Amino acid sequence: MNKNIAIMGCGWLGLPLAQKFIEKGYKVNGTTTSEDKISLLAAKGIHPFLISLSETEISGDMNSFLTHADILILNVPPKLRGEHKENYVKKMQLVLKAIKSSTVRKIVFVSSTSVYGDIDGEVTEDTKPEPSTESGRQLLECEELFQNEPELETTVIRFGGLIGPNRNPITMLSKRKNLKNGNAPINLIHLNDCIRIIYKSVKENWGQDLFNAVFPYHPDKRDYYSLQAIKHKLQLPEYADNTDKKGKLIRSYNLTNVKDFRFTTTL
């Protein structure tokens, strides 16, 4: 088993993920876009690299970052909110070009269930994605970009909404009024399970495949976030009643039925 991993994006998910691999005896190269975090990564046992992506160039020593690594975990979400929107696909095309000039031949691409868009009803990996946001559209295009590259083997993991330390959707939803789709089910996953899934995908070499990753607990948003608001002592969000949409309920079929993965951290 190869013990050299490169993790692009050592933030909320990538940093504890890197620590998991180090605990298991892996050597880890990791990137950050913040010079202030270089010492933090080094203190955690990560070989740190200051690398940032734009639509036209990669700033930093990408060649050294990828040197001696056979596996790259690509954990760089699109930035498509606010004033400074980007072309995520162009950025990933630059990353792909750099990968093809390196020793890396295995990719774990961290994606999102947002690629399914506003589909109603149950969703599995066999469901055709119909992204309804620019972020979802670009993520789907990048999934295909890497999976269609014959020189690489790419595992795509579509995570649901991320929840964990210092991250809970209720902090953004509290006090908001007239929210839509209160009857739709939640599709969330805890950080701990995200880390376990990615680690297992590398350890067991899951290969060229696709996985939904959502905790199998799907109360409706109105009930779940009302309880979360009470738990965190926040003002309850208010949902509009006039909605006929059922919302999508995402099943992690390939994880639980094919790979026998069992979720451990409740929401």
Helix tally? 9
Q: How many strands, what sense, and barrel or not for the largest sheet?
A: 7 strands, parallel
Overall, the morphology is globular
This entry's quaternary arrangement is single chain
Task: Give a written overview of the molecule.
By secondary structure, the protein is α/β, with parallel strands linked by helices. Helices cover about 30% and strands about 20% of the residues. It is built from nine helices and 13 strands. It has helices at about 15-25, 40-45, 60-65, 90-100, 135-145, 170-175, 190-205, 220-230, 255-260, and strands at about 5-10, 25-30, 45-50, 50-55, 60, 70-75, 105-110, 120-125, 155-160, 160-165, 190, 210-215, 250. The strands form four sheets. Strands 3-2-1-6-7-9-12 form a seven-stranded parallel β-sheet, sandwiched between helices. A two-stranded antiparallel sheet has the order 4-5. Helix 2 (about 40-45) links the parallel strand 2 (about 25-30) and strand 3. Helix 1 crosses helix 7 and helix 4 (about 90-100) packs parallel to helix 5 (about 135-145). The longest helix is centred in the middle third of the chain and has 14 residues, at about 135-145. It is globular and about 55 Å long. The mean pLDDT is about 95.
